[in-house]
Each structure stands twice: as C-alpha cells, then as structure tokens.
Amino acid sequence: xxxxxxxxxxxxxxxxxxxxxxxxxxxxxxxxxxxxxxxxxxxxxxxxxxxxxxxxxxxxxxxxxxxxxxxxxxxxxxxxxxxxxxxxxxxxxxxxxxxxxxxxxxxxxxxxxxxxxxxxxxxxxxxxxxxxxxxxxxxxxxxxxxxxxxxxxxxxxxxxxxxxxxxxxxxxxxxxxxxxxxxxxxxxxxxxxxxxxxxxxxxxxxxxxxxxxxxxxxxxxxxxxxxxxxxxxxxxxxxxxxxxxxxxxxxxxxxxxxxxxxxxxxxxxxxxxxxxxxxxxxxxxxxxxxxxxxxxxxxxxxxxxxxxxxxxxxxxxxxxxxxxxxxxxxxxxxxxxxxxxxxxxxxxxxxxxxxxxxxxxxxxxxxxxxxxxxxxxxxxxxxxxxxxxxxxxxxxxxxxxxxxxxxxxxxxxxxx
Length: 416
What we know:
The protein is an alpha/beta fold.
C-alpha cells in the first residue's frame, strides 16, 4: 500500500475540516456584486453620462479618480455591464472594451486589446504602432460601432510612457465616419492631469467623478453584504466584521483591504480546523497582508519610481542617514545611464518622491537649515531586505541593487 505523502495529509485534513466558506469568491476583488452599497450617487452619475449611446449618440469622456479600494472599477464594470445588457435589448451597436493599462504596459498591447475586442486581428508583436492604430480606426468604421474604452490605471501608463496614446484616442473621432468612441479613464492619482500635455487636456472634454474613501460604517455595510454570502451560518464571531472595518478605515478606507482581511482570516481559521473566525484570526491576517501588500506595491511601481526607490535604497545601504532630492537625483541619473534610459527632470523625480511618501514607501520631512533655508530629508519607510528581495527578481533592477554609484563617496562624506 502506498505510503501517504505530506501533501496527502494536508489535503485529507482540509477535506475533513469544518466548512468555513460557502463561497469565498465573493470576497475577491474582481467579484462584481448585484448591490454596491454607498456608491449610489456615482452609479447614477456614470449611468447618466453613458446613457446617450443607447440612442446612437456618443457619450462624453469621463475620468474617475480615487484611491485604491474606493470602488471605482467595480462601479464602472457594474454600470457598463448593465449598459451592454440594455444595448442588446434595444439593438444599439455598443461595444465595451476594458483594459488594465498597468498590466498591458505598452501602447501596442492596449491598441491590440481594442482591436481584438471589435474582431480585428492583430499579431502579438511585429507591426508598427501607427499600423495597429490604423487597423483599429478602419475596423471601427467598417463595423459602425459606438465603442466605450475603459482604461483602468491610466495614470500608470502616462507616468511610464507619456500621454501620446491618450492624445490619439481623444482625437480618433475626427478620423471616423460611421463609428464613434468614448473614453472612461480610471486613475488612483488625484493629480493625474498634471502629467498631461495641454493639447490632451483640451481634447478630453471630460466629465469627472471622484470616489472618496469609505468610512468604518460604510466598510462594515460592504463587509456584511459579502460575508452573508461568503461564509457559512454561525462562522463569524460577534465583533470580527466590526474589527475588520475599523482596521481598514483607520488606514485609508480601502474596501479591497477589508475584503482581503476577512478572507485571509477565514482561510487561517480553515487551516486550523476552527469552527469560527475570531478577532485573533483577524489580527494574524492583518500581519500577513501587510507584508504581502508592500511586496505587491513594490512590484507594481512604474519603472522610474522603482529607480527612485532604488536610489534611496543605495544611499541607505552606504550608511547615509538621510537623503535630499539632489542626492537621489544624482544616483537616479546614474541608474538611468546604466540602462541607457533618458532620465526624467529633477522636478518630476521630486514628484515621484512625494508619491512614494504618500503610499508609505518613503518618509519625507521638511526641516529648517537656518540661514540656508529649508530642505526635505528623505528616508526609507520599509525594510531594505524587502526592496532587495523584490527587486532581485526584476530583470532590469536585479543588477542595480548591487550597483555602486560614482557619486556616493561625495554624498557619504557630506551626510553620514
């Protein structure tokens, strides 16, 4: 008889354990529920903006702003899924295409996704960008469609590759005779428009919808809506949902985080063979998620933001107690030279430092230098080991974390 393996024992224990979840998928980020509490105003507003396509008219471009976990993507998918259903009911020639710009990464892949959505064949690589865009325009006109393009995390693409794609899409209707296109942009950065060329801004003619963070009461309502479907009866101990909501609201009102917290707590209880999810499971889940969240944030930074963070990492590695923007920019420029990339301006790098401060990877503090004025002292807010471990697997950054910048000696002597 075959001896049971370690995994056999793990799987058997799981199969014999008390059932905790009824449907854990309800707690995933990509699940779109039939009800979105506390986003009724945004749903109504977006619905009114896109409704004209049901009568064959192009709707306005709309840009949606808000921090991660405020329901932007869920609301847009909820509204546009129902718009697509209504369009089929009335025979309106509406086509909706969703693209995550951070995952797509390049203009070519975004145009390719749009072409595929309307049935135009484009090879994975090999064509000039202009040729792919021409195929998109020709394909649209031949099909006589009203295309709504959802560009999720559009700020990530703009920061990394510029705003040419957005400029071309805002002008696409000038080249179309029988079709029309509108843009729904989603940005986590409230200052997104600062990165746009004035010509792009003048072409957008967009409406804007702002999503504010959820408070503790709203997060509790969202959680209970999902928890009733996700968990078996009697599994949640009194106070667990309230604790989840309070922890997430105290940080930044992130609904994704609160759903993750409850799901991971349930999975920890499940692995222990527990009959219920307790506050202790919530505390353990919080510690685990915090580590994973930082690693995920590091991986999803834009390339130049990674270079900036790597510059601060190298300064700290050289025992420099604090950095100023000029120090960081000098090392950042060297890193760009190593990979034969054109560095951003010092002003733009300073903005990236501020963004890294906002998301908690850097800590910046403005201090008075007496008659020399004021300066900004910059430190890492996370362990160097996390940066090293995460960037070591990055094709471009793997060799840069051990790079010795030429300017370090001068900086170290002045600021150690």
